Amino acid sequence: MEWGVHKTEILSEHELFATGTTGKVIDEFSSVDQMTSQPPGCDVKALLRMSVLCNIPTAGNCSTADFIISSIFFHRKSAPD
To answer: Of 33, 58, 62, 68, which is the most exposed, with the fewest CB atoms less than 10 Å away?
Structure first.
C-alpha cells in the first residue's frame, strides 16, 4: 500500500481494478472499480483471469509495479497488439 501512496499522482491518471479488500483500502487514495466480493482467494483468481483475458499487466510486488509504470506504454491509451 505504501507504494501506491507514493505513486498516487501517476496512478490517478488511470483506471484501476482491485480485489474487494485491497480496493477498499486503495479507494481512500484514488478511484478504483471494486470487484464483487468473493470468498478469500477467489477474487484474486478472478482478477488474474481478467488480466490475462484482457491483456492487462499485473504486478505482485513493488519491483514489477515500478517496471510497469516506467514502460513507454504506460501513458498510452492502449499498447500495440
So the answer is: 33
